[in-house]
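Example protein was shown:

_____
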Amino acid sequence: MIAWFWRWGPVAAQMAAIFALSSIAKLPSLPGGLTDHTGHFIGYTLLGSLALRGFADARWQGVTSSAAWRSVLLASLYGITDEYHQSFVPGRTPAVDDWVVDTAGATIAALAILWIARTRRSGANRDV
C-alpha cells in the first residue's frame, strides 16, 4: 500500500491542485505576463510527468512507450473532466483549446522523459 501511495500520491496531489484552481471563479493573472495557456501547459506537463512515474513504478526501467502513452491518455482525459468541471464554476467556461494545450503538455513531458530513459539505458549498455 505504501508503494502505491509513493507512485500515485503525487498524481492525486497534482489532480487535486488542478481541481482546486479550476474551482476559483476568477483566477489572478500569472506572474511575468504568462498566459492562461502557459499555466495549463505547465500544470499538465507536471501531471503527465507524475503519471508516467506512476505507470513506470517509479523506475527508469519502467519508462516505456506504453507507460508514456498511458500517462498522456490519463492526463488528457483528466483535462476533459477539468474543462467539464469548469462549466459549473461561475465565471469559468470550458474550452477546447485549453484541453489541447493540456494534452500537448502531457505529450511533451512523456516524450522528453521517454527520450531521457532511453538515453540512460543506451548509456548503461555502453558501459558494460
